[in-house]
Design brief:
The protein contains no helices and eleven strands. With 114 residues, it is mainly beta. The strands form two sheets. Strands 2, 4, 5, 6, 9, 10 and 11 form a seven-stranded mixed sheet that branches. The chain has a four-stranded antiparallel sheet with strand order 1-3-8-7, with no helix packed on it.
Amino acid sequence: QVQLVESGGGLVQPGGSLRLSCAASGIVFSIYSLGWYRQAPGKQRELVAAITTGGRTNYADSVKGRFTISRDDAKNTLYLQMNSLKPEDTAVYYCNAGRLKDYWGQGAQVTVSS
């Protein structure tokens, strides 16, 4: 059974930092392209950052220079380091593993507010 479990969300003040983790099981983690998505209330889910099996990354324009995606294939874990957080970053963040089929985590709430 495939499981993706996010952790590290929470409440942070504007300008603060959080690090999300996504622990995977039930898949050969290293052969999957991985990504972080987010969904704010009343909005569609959007791609935040993605990383290929070879380590190439791409980011949404809104997070470039502030967020960093990384993966540790030995630990079957995906990360998202989020710095200089803004209120508009408030959303539920989901990790995704994609190859022939997409797998999703349950989501982690990130709230940026003073």
